[in-house]
Write a structure and sequence with these properties.
The complex is a heterodimer of chains A (about 110) and B (about 110).
Chain A (H helix, E strand, L loop, with lengths): L4 E3 L2 E4 L5 E6 L6 E7 L6 E7 L2 E4 L8 E4 L6 E5 L8 E8 L4 E3 L3 E5 L1
Parallel strand pairs in A: 2-11
Antiparallel strand pairs in A: 1-3, 3-8, 4-5, 4-9, 5-6, 7-8, 9-10, 9-11
Chain B lengths: L2 E4 L4 E4 L4 E3 L1 E4 L5 E7 L5 E7 L5 E4 L2 E4 L9 E3 L8 E8 L7 E3 L3 E6 L1
Parallel strand pairs in B: 2-12
Antiparallel strand pairs in B: 1-4, 3-9, 5-6, 5-10, 7-8, 8-9, 10-11, 10-12
Classes of the chains: A mainly beta (about 110), B mainly beta (about 110).
């Protein structure tokens, strides 16, 4: 069964450093999402792509976060510089029609 | 704006007990409703969904009915198992899941053998 792949699974970094997360959606899925899940909370959307275009990035802190999906397939989410409050799980999801499929996530700890 | 409210956990039950996790929503229009489950160390998995009023979603013995009159989508299971221990998220979407999903805060479920 096809799955959404994410790497790394875990990342520890110091504040002010740059970090990057990678996501490979299920083949053929045009829509890709990045969510942030703070411990004890539900996921919140950061950015949504339709193919290579950003559809919604209204909740993305653009002063430090950036996301790209250059060829409309895999995607990278970057944080620079990382802050203590960025410690969270970063989830990627993709969808073809009605159902969003989630990857295992990248757990980020900022020290 | 749209929002989801679900009962706070943790919920602790004995094996074979009846489960209800309450979920209510606020939305304009006619959202689609979902229950996602997150097992320890794993990503979110879609458990069930309903796209219009009075629809019943079901999967793995879990059920939830879309109640527009009470804006609710409560999750139920008649006999829980230890393997059901996980965090359950109620969620809604404005466009049948192809738009951003708004999640509740999650309810942690512990099932004791």
């Amino acid at each position: 069964e096809a799955e959404v792949a994410q790497s790394p699974r875990y990342k520890i970094t110091e504040k002010s450093q740059a970090v990057a997360f990678w996501c490979d959606p299920i083949s053929g899925h045009a829509t890709l999402y990045w969510y942030r899940q703070i411990l004890g909370q539900g996921p919140e959307l950061l950015v949504q792509f339709q193919d290579e275009s950003v559809v919604d990035d209204s909740q993305l802190p653009k002063d430090r976060f950036s996301a790209e999906r250059l060829k409309g397939v895999d995607s990278t989410l970057k944080i620079q510089p990382a802050e203590l409050g960025d410690s969270a799980m970063y989830l990627c999801a993709s969808s073809l029609r009605e159902t969003q499929y989630f990857g295992p996530g990248t757990r980020l700890l900022v020290l | 704006g749209n929002s989801v409210t679900q009962m706070e956990g943790p919920v602790t039950l004995s094996e074979e007990a009846f489960l209800t996790i309450n979920c209510t929503y606020t939305a304009t229009g006619y959202p689609s409703l979902f229950w996602y489950v997150q097992y320890p160390g794993e990503g979110l998995q879609l458990l069930l969904k309903a796209t219009k009023a009075d629809d019943k979603g079901s999967n793995k013995g879990f059920e939830a009915t879309y109640r527009k009159e009470t804006t609710s989508f409560h999750l139920e299971k008649g006999s829980v198992q230890v393997s059901d221990s996980a965090v359950y998220f109620c969620a809604l979407s404005d466009n049948a899941g192809d738009d951003k999903i708004i999640f509740g805060k999650g309810t942690r479920l512990h099932i004791l053998p």
